[in-house]
UniProtKB/TrEMBL annotation:
Reactions accelerated catalytically: tRNA(Phe) + L-phenylalanine + ATP = L-phenylalanyl-tRNA(Phe) + AMP + diphosphate + H(+)
Organism ancestry: Eukaryota, Viridiplantae, Chlorophyta, core chlorophytes, Trebouxiophyceae
Protein name per Swiss-Prot or TrEMBL: phenylalanine--tRNA ligase
Organism per entry: Coccomyxa subellipsoidea (strain C-169) (Green microalga)
Subcellular location: Mitochondrion matrix
Keyword set includes Transcription regulation: no
Similarity-based family: Belongs to the class-II aminoacyl-tRNA synthetase family.
GO MF, one example: ATP binding
Length: 383
């Protein structure tokens, strides 16, 4: 079949610059179901929860800093690797650059994996405070809060010179203003009854860096990353010597907390029982689950190939066959055979539709296809 091991079962054809231009490139790892999501623009459908939360965040910034933030929500998700990585100082050997993590159209072109891809170009256009909202794409694990296509809102604000006297002072002021702003945003969205905590983090483009987590459904859920922008990004993009802060919000995660949406796949359903529960401007809706259908668990065990194995490739294979019927993929056992020096993994795949009951037959078919691709494309030895 000539399938690149590293890239799993990717098709080799992808439209890039609009509907008429097709390109094929051996590095392309964009699968059909991912490709089909481009242009869905959930963040621009007024009655969709992602758009509702976007508007609520806009309202917060308009109230706090009237007329200051410029809002962009229609930047194309196909960007250069340079914009996605180099311009935000992602090191050449950083894991996020791997085709295990990022969807590549060719070696120089990716589906943006974060809205930070637009930081540098927007600064170069002369913007000094802006919000960039868009769909982002990542090869990632599968569970209730991870989906390969999701939405982020990037916020950047360059400080006024009058706010600080030297670089160190500017960093302090930026950190403080950033944290105050995001805490006020959380209070604006969720009220003060919500439990939040700051966690130290690392991003190549900020220093210091933080993540904000919210306690939701019995767990700490990471909702955003942020920090004081690296000086170099400002210096080479028309803001020499200035100070700025930046954040990247996960809009699905925020919407899950606000509307009590238990599973990230629901954002993609067209089931009226979901969509009719949300209306533009209504921030107090709480999702009422329609009857929960039973999950079906399937375990799959295999010896890892000597050529290497990554969980993201497994997840991509499962999504390729199951689409949104897969709820989670969890490693439940791993051991290395002492004599053979080979490692075996056992994964539990949970299948569940949010809209209907599944039949044994359709799940068995999907599972057979998954097993087939695992051995044919990922070269594992099924047990
Ligand atoms: C970033 O993407 C940084 N660009 C954020 C940033 C911007 C930091 C500006 C500093 C300055 P991270 O990979 O942590 O960071 O993702 C940001 C948020 O996106 C996460 O906190 C989470 O809310 C959301 N997110 C990440 N992966 C997924 C996923 N697979 N599905 C749904 N939401 C996700
Ligand atoms: Mg993170």
């Amino acid at each position: 079949k000539g399938v690149n091991l590293l890239l799993g079962n990717a098709p080799r054809l992808c439209r890039i610059h609009g509907p008429d231009v097709l390109t094929s490139h051996p590095f392309n790892n964009v699968t059909e179901n991912i490709f089909a999501k481009i242009g869905a623009n959930l963040h621009r459908r007024p009655d969709h929860p992602i758009c509702i939360i976007k508007e609520a965040i806009y309202a917060f910034f308009d109230e706090r800093h009237p007329g200051v933030f410029n809002k962009l929500d229609d930047l194309y998700p196909v960007v250069t690797a340079k914009a996605n990585f180099d311009e935000v100082l992602v090191p050449a050997d950083h894991v996020s650059r791997s085709p295990n993590d990022t969807y590549y159209i060719d070696t120089d072109t990716v589906l943006r994996c974060h809205t930070s891809a637009h930081q540098a170009e927007t600064l170069r256009k002369g913007e000094r405070a802006f919000l960039v909202t868009g769909d982002v794409y990542r090869r990632d694990s599968i569970d209730q809060s991870h989906y390969p296509v999701f939405h982020q809102m990037e916020g950047v604000k360059v400080l006024d010179r009058s706010q600080y006297s030297d670089a160190a002072g500017g960093t302090k002021v930026a950190e403080q203003e950033l944290k105050e702003t995001l805490e006020a945003l959380a209070a604006h969205l969720f009220g003060t009854g919500i439990e939040c905590r700051w966690v130290d983090a690392y991003f190549p483009f900020t220093d210091p860096s933080f993540e904000l987590e919210i306690f939701f459904n019995g767990e700490w859920l990471e909702v955003l990353g942020c920090g004081v922008m690296e000086q170099q990004i400002l210096d080479v993009n028309g803001c020499a010597g200035e100070k700025a802060w930046a954040f990247g919000l996960g809009l699905e995660r925020l919407a899950m907390v606000l509307f009590a949406i238990p599973d990230i796949r629901l954002f993609w359903t067209s089931d009226k029982r979901f969509t009719k529960q949300f209306k533009a401007g209504q921030l107090n809706a709480k999702f009422k689950p329609y009857s929960k259908y039973p999950p079906c668990f399937k375990d799959v065990s295999f010896w890892l190939p000597e050529t290497g194995f990554t969980e993201n490739n497994l997840c991509e294979v499962v999504r390729g066959h199951a689409g949104d019927l897969v709820e989670s993929v969890v490693l439940i056992d791993s051991f290395t055979h002492p004599k053979k020096q080979r490692t075996s993994h056992c994964y539990r795949i949970s299948y569940r539709s949010m809209d209907r009951s599944l039949t044994d037959e359709e799940i068995n078919d999907i599972q057979d296809n998954v097993r087939g691709s695992l051995s044919d494309d990922l070269k594992v030895e099924l047990r």
